[in-house]
Write a structure and sequence with these properties.
The protein is of the alpha+beta class. It is built from ten helices and 18 strands. The protein folds into two domains: 275 residues, Aminopeptidase; 118 residues, Alpha-Beta Plaits, CATH 3.30.70. The relative contact order is 0.19.
Length: 398
């Protein structure tokens, strides 16, 4: 089995499901199995590594392969460890299956294929006798799918004074050193280069009522009724947003109602409804201002209700047009040498790259696989793209 295929299979068979804010537990949840695999892999290869604690059961891993040419820049390669849940999948999610040049399994495309390409590239760079003209700093970050807490902790290593960092950051801070010159974030881009993408703000809205027996509904306040008015207001604003900046490369701003929770039973007047909202942002939009507009519409739609707006559990700016020209051009040159023609594109989704850019690291997004396969019921990735991605990454360093 080829090195990139074996590496990707190793990653897929180790579940690293993000709970996505749900109160769930089990052997498939959190990133610990991937973290341990990476530590063992780097230890066996003699590549210096460190863990960075982020939350219980959730550690970033950083590793460093130094350049062999003096005064070389440091480039960060980042890939997140977590995947979305495997509920409803039509294939065995954690039993990697290779068929017709594809590997199937949860996370194969988003983003263990990209991580496998980076790990394979590190191994090839280390084994080769060719001079390395860049130092590669590899990071495997946690909780990308729900909150970006892993990459925010990583950025803290160079953007926050050491005295203000937790003691558990010490080993990772020493390994990382100064701020990287640029970053490549692994996501399924079909070997194109995402130079700008959207941001997002996500939060919960709690609409309160007063519970009572359904035989006497007039004695209570049914929280579902004002929630209904709020939902209609959200729908109206969502339609309006689609007409704003429809020709933007990243697509228009969007608003989506993701979940609704309310009621305990048909014979009880419900006293609480909880909505989860997501507002996707254009690169130049402010998360705070975008959220404020939604809150204003909600208040106008149900001014007679007691409504509580929770603080965002995710708040991330978009990625503006990347100033990382040398990074983009080196990917393009390495791709052309392999018969590929990477394009510069924009994306409607968000990634760790926007957090890194806000922390002063010019960043782009690049990797194997198509976003069309991410999060799907039969998730898969083209293995040839994983191999090409690894070779392009190597070509940037040699």
């Amino acid at each position: 089995m080829s090195d990139h295929v074996a590496t990707l299979a190793d990653l897929v068979r180790r579940p690293s499901v993000n709970p996505m804010g749900r109160d769930v537990s089990g052997p498939e949840y959190l990133e610990g199995r991937i973290t341990d695999y990476l530590v063992q892999r780097f230890s066996a290869a003699g590549i210096p590594w460190a863990r960075q604690h982020v939350a219980p059961g959730r550690d970033n891993v950083v590793a460093r392969l130094d350049a062999t040419v003096k005064k070389s820049p440091v480039i960060l390669w980042d890939a997140h460890q977590d995947t979305v849940p495997a509920d409803g999948m039509t294939i065995e999610p954690f039993a990697p299956l290779v068929r017709d040049g594809r590997l199937y399994g949860r996370g194969a495309c988003d983003v263990k294929g990209g991580m496998a390409a980076m790990l394979t590239a590190l191994a090839r760079l280390q084994a080769s006798g060719q001079p390395r003209k860049k130092t590669v700093l590899f990071s495997a970050t946690v909780n990308e799918e729900f909150g970006f807490s892993g990459v925010k902790a990583l950025a803290r290593l160079w953007s926050t004074p050491a005295a203000e960092q937790p003691a558990s950051d010490a080993a990772a801070r020493t390994l990382v050193g100064t701020r990287p010159a640029s970053a490549i974030v692994a996501e399924p881009t079909e070997l194109d280069i995402v130079t700008q993408h959207k941001g997002a703000v996500r939060w919960r809205v709690r609409i309160h009522g007063r519970a009572c027996h359904s035989a006497f509904p007039e004695r209570g306040e049914n929280a579902i009724y004002p929630a209904g008015r709020v939902i209609l207001a959200i729908e109206a604003l969502a339609r309006e947003l689609l007409a704003r900046h429809p020709d933007h490369p990243c697509g228009p701003p969007t608003l989506s109602l993701g979940t609704i929770h309310g009621g305990m039973g048909v014979n009880l007047v419900p006293d609480l409804v909880v909505l989860e909202l997501e507002r996707r942002l254009l690169p130049d939009e402010s998360p705070q201002q975008a959220r404020a507009e939604v809150i204003e519409r909600i208040a106008a739609a149900a001014s007679d209700a007691r409504i509580e707006q929770e603080e965002p559990f995710l708040e991330s700016h978009g990625l503006p047009e990347s100033p990382c020209r040398s990074c983009v051009e080196s990917i393009e040159a390495a791709g052309r040498a392999l018969g590929c023609d990477p394009r510069r594109v924009a994306a409607r989704y968000g990634t760790n790259a926007s957090v890194l850019a806000c922390a002063g690291v010019p960043s782009v997004v690049f990797g194997p696989g198509s976003i069309a396969q991410a999060h799907t019921a039969d998730e898969w990735i083209d293995l040839d793209q994983v191999d090409k991605a690894a070779n392009i990454l190597c070509g940037m360093v040699w």
